[in-house]
Amino acid sequence: MSRRRPRTPGGTVATVPIARLGQTMNGRTYHSVLSYRLVVSLFSVSKPCPACSRVFPGDIFGDHVVSCAGSVGIKHQHNLVYDTLLDICYRSGISAGREVDIGLVDGHGGPLRPTDLLLYSWDRGRDVCVDLTGSSPLTQTGMTRFVPGRVVVDAAQRKCVKYRDLCMATGYGFLFFTFSSLGELDTDVVALLKRILKFSMS
């Protein structure tokens, strides 16, 4: 039986602490998460990030720390989205391969990592590579030029520059799947999900 917890800005902390499901946290972590949720400063002076050791002046609320690419949390979120997307494809009857090596090389002849997801015969009979990228708009402090959704657009542009031409040169299509830690999705990602939905319904 769950117990009611005091309301905090943004909703209610309603997760039941179940150790076997990994739904627990130690006192230090709970203090940090609660302080961040209540917009209480975590640091009085600038300190290095425990994950990447970089110092972000003025980051008293811990924006970088909670979204650092070197921490476990952001990687876990990427893997969770990845596994969910792959499961949706399987359940929808879409033929997809996981981490398929299609032999891509960079400009110096070095091998690039396998594509995250390969959708077979997705684009008029052509196999299409899908690259998943999770980003956070809070990886830098001083958000004076913050624009909602900008981080997923920037990530999509970087991926297109790096992979699209290489994939097309070897006969593959290319799609990106960019999302942010705040739940933002690129418009092309939304279009892909809608097509998957139509495929599953038909």
TrEMBL record:
<protein>
    <submittedName>
        <fullName>Uncharacterized protein</fullName>
    </submittedName>
</protein>
